[in-house]
Specification:
CATH class: Alpha Beta
CATH architecture: 3-Layer(aba) Sandwich
Structural class: alpha+beta
Number of domains: 1
Number of strands: 7
CATH superfamily: Gcn5-related N-acetyltransferase (GNAT)
Largest sheet: 7 strands, mixed
Strand content: 25-35%
Low-confidence stretches: none
Order of helices and strands: EHHEEEHEHEEH
Helix content: 25-40%
Shape: globular
Length: 186
């Protein structure tokens, strides 16, 4: 695993495009341009980790975290995201990526990790994602019913959350990813 680079955008889009075109895992309808994806990578890396997993020189998955909400009170909360090549799921890669991501975020001072998951109901949704997050220690934290429309049907969004850091009376500011990445050889 390594830190993503802007130049990885095309390869990451190769992975992501499957989910845009064939699933309701993402609510995007159109595959973003390479330039848009490059900007997304830049934006995340300003403060948070954006990791890629490689095997034999090929990117096989990526994961990143971003601030959950913009208000100051949410500074210690992140939204987790992970996408693997669709034939790499259930290989243990997701667990390895999330574990490293949580370790980095904990070092940054993050307290809560949240994942937003399309509620599994049909062939377009991912029945494994909820099980994966449960195994990783995430708890069901809520549901938004009928909030995403794709493939001519409505989907609910599940919130799953995990406390990864320590709650304190006086919280220290979150460290930027660049301040902690050397500790993880990234």
């Amino acid at each position: 695993m390594r830190t993503a680079r802007v130049e990885d955008a095309g390869k990451l889009l190769d992975i992501y495009s499957y989910y845009v075109k064939k699933t309701a895992v993402t609510f995007e309808y159109e595959i973003p341009s390479v330039e848009e994806f490059q900007e997304r990578i830049r934006h995340i890396l300003e403060h948070y980790p954006y990791l890629v997993a490689e095997e034999d020189g090929q990117i096989i998955g990526y994961s990143y975290a971003g601030r959950l909400r913009p208000r100051a009170a949410f500074a210690w909360d992140v939204e987790m995201t992970i996408y693997l090549k669709h034939d790499m799921r259930r290989s243990g890669l997701g667990r390895r990526m999330y574990t490293l991501m949580e370790d980095i975020l904990r070092e940054q001072g993050v307290v809560n990790a949240v994942s937003l998951i399309t509620k599994p109901t049909d062939e377009y949704s991912d029945f494994n994602s909820v099980q994966f997050h449960e195994k990783m220690g995430y708890m069901h934290a809520g549901e938004l019913k009928d909030c995403g429309y794709k493939f001519n049907r409505w989907y609910a969004l599940l919130y799953m959350a995990k406390q990864i850091g320590i709650l304190q009376g006086e919280m220290l500011p979150i460290k930027d990813f660049d301040e902690v990445r050397e500790k993880f050889n990234l």
